[in-house]
């Protein structure tokens, strides 16, 4: 039973479903209910007032969350102002908000309390519990970590496609690399490649796994390969025994067999004779079971046909392929989930699965009670886009009975007619299951919103007509179309003539090919839009609102073109461009790192980083951004003075990069080299410039997460080679002001536009894979035997119909719909093949295909005459040369900045300071916190002193060629080792599985796994002075990759700094004093680890430098030389001061002398064998208290 919703009387202390048709004020209603809960006002109240932290609101996108928070805040402030005015003047006529006026009788007795509650809500609106589904799950798992069984410090990120692919590659190698050539071909036939499989099934890597319709005859992939081989053997045996007899029979009765069957038999016989691919033969052999004879010429079939019938009854190649795909997918999902659990890393979609699993545990009742206490009331928006995992989460929290009788309220809001996100995992059948089992789900009532506030009365009446006259309009019987009312009397008028809400643009001649049809339709719509804007320029195209007769001139921004895909958007955009009409695609999903601009910028960055590399510089000069042709580059190269000047400029750019950051450097380069001016010369110059500025901003953001300039370059190259689908990386709009909008139907949901154009709504969609359907229990099933193709087609058609409904309900005043010259159906068509609009025009299941239908007749039967009109496209003025007038566009000017900027204030790092040490290095790019360069210093730091274990004895521990001294060297190696140690739980044994990530990243053979396991085990078991072994440090006593900003409150002074070091620092060398630019600001850095033991804090820095192939090279005496020469002593002093300040600020009892334990530099290659009592590879120190205090004073606080 459904009831029209009254937001003032809706019972709040029960479980409700609200179905809100398009444009019926769903968000407005949600805000009203929210304020009722805050004020405890209205009928059927919640038993207690709730504050903003107790009302849970869950939406499905960040944008929706942001909008809802803003709308709630605006309404709270509006009600607060109105109540304050009413309290002062006692005049109800001043209250213009109908809902507040209806609630006033409930508030009048204590207005002060109502005003106090609203005031409090405005002050703390940022704490409102309005979340996306993912952020809600993350919050619960973090907040109730003990009850959920998770650690506090798990990380959350977008799905890392590169990592997922690596897991896929690893599974592929494990399962298939050792196969024979024959079996490998079987795998190729089934999956093509790991990348092909991944792309086809990426959407199924999270969420609920489909169930299978038939039990598989094998349990794993290897068994599946063996099973298939058995079937091949059986098939081959049948052929060998009966084929000769069959050919004799066919030669004798060939003329009795119908032509089509004759051709199939001939093809099969030829493939057997030629010993063709067995899979091909098997597929051809199936046709032998369907031999058809000419009438009256039937003869007895040979034995081969009967044997093949028996064979194919128990074996289906299609089902086999589906089964193998199912097993591979299930195994891959297990590997992905295991990886996330092992690495304490969760993807956003994975959070839902984790919380669902936690809530399903028998001991989850305590957690459920805690969540209910924190959020007694919950509203879930867009619930038609839910899935089984999300439904289970909220069912367990709010719809399942628990021992206490705590009062809760649970309301879901959705519209099954707008469920269009199946491709993202949304499942309307999950929503429908709630309706089908309303009582079982403890849903007390279903309410509806049926008054449209968006569209004109005429447009709503026409949509009511179109859908209501069709029998079963949404294909699924449990999705109904309720009649909607409206009150907006507005319309579009052109040349003082009222336009009808449906404008049909019909091609005047039949076009068979899809591409030609789309081009013709795009050209027609571009012409129509041109004429509309032309009339608007002459003040002849107006939106008029009755009865006030308010008028508004039509503008380009009022027109939206809805499409299905990026390809369709480009077709209509090109057509509009030919008319001089600017349009933007609001659904752009492309990644900015995929553009030519991104690749060109990489060349420029490399030239700035290595200005003395001729190859790098020449590549940058020849890029589109720099824009020199071959002749100009040759001329520049031949002129020594010009070339020298260019190198000087590049050196200056690099200096700005190192001292101020990448964004200031790029802006200076763009200005000096006049790159924006050059780009404007291109037709797509605006697009290039927007992309260039976007990339520059992304580089600046990434710089804060990277250690130095080279690390930033490496990061940028990774983005180019392995593009991630992050929202920040999507192409930005060139402009957003008065332009025609092009947007996908999916993206348009929730939006409204005065005029909506649908040029390609009748374009036939290419049918996708029909492998999934829902059974009677609304469960997602994998149709392996293709026994439910009708159901899968029905569900696909239903999705298309919902997409049409969304498209038609976006318009306020007018729909412009493109149709072909003749309908795309005929007397041989059936309901399953119809386009959804044709389905409605033919009145759904009452369709009569026998009549020859024209679109004019179809619209005449479906809509009232006052609602539609047809314009034949050959009547459009295609040759009109009118273009939009851009002369009125205001000229923008840049304000001149006249203030002084403190140029020596900046954020620097140890690497930048180290690069300035003139006597030690001409250039050095190692960075604070991580030795990503894994330097080979063996020639400088060889040491002949003895150690307890001789070098030859390493062979007792490691296979020849696989010791830590043999481990690869280089920047990637250092980064990989740091990353592994950062995520490692020291208290757990080193597992082989965890080390596969290192071998994968470095392309090492699996022979390295055992030596790596021994090496890292020795590192964890090596006793460290004062601290003990690392394997005694738990996760809660360890912080990894700790980023800090150390404030330099005073100007950095070389003389004072060196004076302090010379007095109190034992490693200070007066021959190599610190000499850097005088700076002020912050030193930024990353500390590998800070650990706590017995209330003492220790800094740990991992060094993967190669110092030589002897353990003696890693003794303390030698390490001191390395520390001093590489100026790591300056690094650990900065570390120590940063940690000292942090602890002093956060722990009132902290004292450096008592609580700071010291600094460890662990040279990992030297920690290769059990403790030698020599502590090889371990450097330990604790800077003097007076030194740290002096530095603290010197640099200010």
TrEMBL record:
Q: Which residues form the active site?
A: 1101
Swiss-Prot/TrEMBL keywords: ATP-binding, DNA damage, DNA repair, DNA-binding, Exonuclease, Helicase, Hydrolase, Isomerase, Magnesium, Metal-binding, Nuclease, Nucleotide-binding
- The entry marks the following residues as binding ATP, namely 20-27
Annotated GO MF terms: 3'-5' DNA helicase activity; ATP binding; DNA binding; exodeoxyribonuclease V activity; magnesium ion binding
EC number(s) from the headed UniProt entry: 3.1.11.5, 5.6.2.4
- Region (Nuclease activity, interacts with RecD and RecA) residue spans: 904-1197
Cofactors named for this entry: Mg(2+)
Which residue range or ranges hold the UvrD-like helicase ATP-binding domain? 1-456
Signal peptide range equals none
Family, according to the entry, reads as follows: Belongs to the helicase family. UvrD subfamily.
Q: What does this protein do?
A: A helicase/nuclease that prepares dsDNA breaks (DSB) for recombinational DNA repair. Binds to DSBs and unwinds DNA via a highly rapid and processive ATP-dependent bidirectional helicase activity. Unwinds dsDNA until it encounters a Chi (crossover hotspot instigator) sequence from the 3' direction. Cuts ssDNA a few nucleotides 3' to the Chi site. The properties and activities of the enzyme are changed at Chi. The Chi-altered holoenzyme produces a long 3'-ssDNA overhang and facilitates RecA-binding to the ssDNA for homologous DNA recombination and repair.
Query: Would you tell me the protein name for this molecule?
Result: RecBCD enzyme subunit RecB
Source organism (scientific name): Gallibacterium salpingitidis
């Amino acid at each position: 039973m459904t009831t029209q919703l009254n937001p003032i009387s809706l019972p709040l202390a029960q479980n409700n479903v609200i179905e809100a048709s398009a444009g019926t004020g769903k968000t407005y209603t949600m805000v009203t209910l929210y304020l009722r809960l805050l004020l405890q006002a209205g009928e059927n109240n919640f038993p207690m007032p709730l504050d903003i932290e107790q009302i849970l609101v869950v939406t499905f996108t960040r944008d929706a969350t942001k909008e809802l928070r803003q709308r709630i805040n605006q309404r709270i402030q509006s009600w607060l102002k109105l109540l304050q005015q009413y309290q002062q003047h006692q005049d109800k006529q001043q209250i213009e908000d109908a809902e507040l006026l209806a609630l006033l009788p409930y508030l009048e007795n204590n207005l002060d309390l109502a005003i106090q509650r609203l005031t409090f809500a405005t002050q703390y609106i940022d704490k409102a519990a309005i979340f996306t589904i993912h952020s809600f799950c993350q919050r619960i798992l973090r907040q109730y970590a003990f009850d959920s069984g998770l650690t506090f410090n798990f990380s959350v990120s977008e799905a890392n496609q590169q990592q997922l692919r690596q897991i896929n590659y690893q599974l592929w190698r494990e399962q298939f690399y050792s196969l024979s050539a024959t079996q490998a071909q079987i795998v190729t036939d089934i999956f093509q490649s790991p990348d092909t499989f991944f792309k086809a099934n990426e959407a199924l890597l999270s969420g609920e796994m489909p169930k299978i319709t038939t039990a598989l005859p094998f349990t794993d992939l290897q068994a599946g390969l063996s099973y298939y081989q058995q079937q091949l053997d059986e098939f081959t045996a049948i052929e060998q025994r009966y084929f000769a007899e069959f050919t004799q029979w066919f030669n004798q009765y060939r003329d009795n067999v119908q032509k089509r069957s004759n051709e199939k038999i001939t093809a099969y016989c030829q493939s057997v004779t030629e010993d063709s691919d067995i899979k091909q033969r098997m597929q051809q052999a199936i046709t032998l079971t369907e031999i058809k004879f000419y009438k009256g010429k039937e003869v007895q079939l040979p034995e081969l046909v009967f044997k093949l019938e028996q064979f194919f009854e128990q074996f289906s190649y299609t089902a086999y392929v589906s089964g193998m795909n199912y097993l591979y997918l299930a195994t891959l999902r297990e590997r992905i989930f295991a990886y996330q659990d092992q690495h304490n890393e969760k993807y956003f979609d994975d959070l839902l699965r984790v919380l669902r699993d936690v809530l399903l545990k028998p001991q989850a009742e305590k957690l459920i009670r805690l969540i209910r206490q924190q959020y007694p009331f919950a509203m879930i928006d867009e619930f038609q886009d839910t899935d089984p995992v999300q439904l289970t989460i909220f069912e367990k929290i709010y719809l399942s009975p628990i021992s206490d009788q705590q009062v809760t309220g649970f309301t879901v809001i959705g519209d099954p007619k707008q469920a269009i996100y199946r491709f993202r995992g949304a499942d309307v059948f999950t929503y429908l299951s709630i309706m089908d089992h309303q009582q079982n789900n403890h849903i007390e009532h279903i309410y509806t919103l049926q008054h449209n506030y968006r569209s004109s009365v005429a447009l709503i009446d026409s949509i009511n007509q179109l859908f209501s006259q069709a029998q079963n309009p949404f294909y699924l019987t449990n999705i109904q179309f309720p009649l909607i009312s409206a009150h907006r009397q507005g319309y579009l008028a052109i040349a003082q003539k009222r336009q009808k809400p449906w404008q049909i643009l019909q091609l005047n001649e039949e076009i068979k090919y899809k591409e030609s049809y789309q081009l013709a339709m795009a050209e027609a719509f571009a012409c129509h839009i041109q004429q509309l804007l032309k009339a608007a320029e002459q003040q002849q195209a107006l939106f008029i609102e009755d009865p006030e007769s308010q008028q508004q001139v039509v503008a380009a921004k009022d027109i939206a073109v809805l499409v299905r895909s990026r390809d369709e958007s480009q077709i209509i955009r090109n057509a509009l461009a030919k008319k001089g009409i600017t349009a933007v695609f609001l659904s752009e999903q492309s990644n900015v790192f995929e553009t030519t601009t991104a690749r060109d910028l990489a060349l420029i960055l490399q030239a700035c980083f290595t200005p003395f590399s001729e190859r790098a510089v020449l590549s940058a000069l020849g890029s589109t951004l720099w824009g020199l042709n071959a002749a100009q580059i040759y001329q520049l190269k031949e002129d020594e003075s010009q070339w020298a000047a260019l190198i000087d400029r590049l050196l200056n750019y690099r200096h700005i990069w190192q001292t101020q950051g990448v964004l200031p450097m790029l802006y200076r380069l763009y200005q000096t080299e006049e790159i924006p001016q050059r780009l404007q010369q291109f037709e797509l110059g605006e697009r290039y410039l927007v992309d260039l500025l976007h990339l520059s901003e992304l580089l600046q953001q990434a710089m804060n997460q990277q250690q130095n300039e080279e690390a930033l370059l490496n990061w940028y190259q990774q983005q180019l080679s392995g593009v991630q689908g992050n929202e920040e990386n999507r192409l930005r709009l060139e402009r957003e002001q008065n332009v025609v909008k092009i947007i996908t139907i999916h993206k348009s949901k929730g939006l409204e536009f005065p005029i909506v154009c649908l040029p390609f709504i009748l374009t036939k969609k290419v049918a996708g894979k029909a492998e999934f359907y829902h059974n009677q229990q609304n469960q997602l099933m994998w149709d392996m035997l293709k026994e439910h193709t009708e159901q899968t087609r029905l569900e696909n058609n239903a999705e298309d119909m919902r997409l049409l409904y969304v498209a038609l309900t976006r318009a306020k005043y007018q729909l412009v719909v493109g149709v072909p010259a003749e309908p795309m159906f005929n007397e041989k068509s059936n309901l399953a093949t119809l386009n959804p609009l044709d389905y409605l025009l033919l009145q759904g299941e009452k369709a009569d295909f026998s009549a020859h239908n024209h679109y004019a007749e179809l619209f005449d039967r479906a809509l009232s005459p006052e609602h539609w009109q047809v314009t034949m496209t050959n009547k459009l003025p295609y040759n009109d040369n009118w273009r939009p007038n851009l002369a009125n566009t205001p000229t923008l000017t840049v304000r001149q900045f006249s203030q002084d900027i403190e140029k020596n204030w900046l954020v620097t790092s140890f690497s930048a300071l180290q690069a300035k040490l003139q006597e030690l290095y001409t250039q050095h790019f190692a960075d604070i916190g991580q030795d990503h360069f894994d330097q080979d210093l063996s020639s400088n730091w060889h040491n002949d002193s003895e150690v307890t274990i001789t070098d030859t004895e390493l062979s007792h521990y490691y296979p020849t060629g696989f010791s830590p001294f043999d481990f690869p060297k280089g920047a990637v190696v250092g980064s990989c080792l740091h990353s592994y140690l950062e995520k490692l739980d020291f208290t757990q044994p080193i597992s082989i599985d965890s080390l596969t990530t290192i071998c994968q990243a470095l392309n090492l053979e699996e022979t390295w796994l055992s030596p790596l396991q021994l090496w890292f085990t020795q590192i964890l078991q090596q006793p460290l002075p004062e601290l003990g072994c690392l394997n005694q440090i738990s996760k809660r006593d360890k912080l990894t990759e700790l980023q800090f900003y150390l404030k330099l409150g005073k100007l950095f002074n070389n003389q004072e700094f060196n004076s302090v070091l010379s007095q109190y620092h034992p490693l200070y060398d007066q021959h190599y004093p610190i000499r850097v630019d005088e700076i002020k600001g912050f030193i930024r850095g990353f500390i590998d680890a800070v650990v706590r033991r017995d209330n003492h804090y220790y800094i740990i820095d991992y060094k993967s430098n190669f110092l030589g192939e002897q353990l003696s090279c890693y003794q303390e005496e030698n390490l001191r030389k390395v520390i001093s020469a590489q100026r790591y002593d300056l690094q650990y002093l900065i570390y120590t001061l940063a940690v000292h300040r942090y602890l002093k600020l956060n722990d009132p009892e902290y004292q450096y002398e008592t609580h700071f334990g010291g600094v460890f530099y662990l040279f990992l290659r030297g920690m290769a064998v059990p403790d030698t009592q020599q502590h090889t590879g371990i450097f330990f120190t604790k800077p003097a208290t007076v030194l740290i205090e002096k530095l603290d004073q010197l640099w200010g606080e």
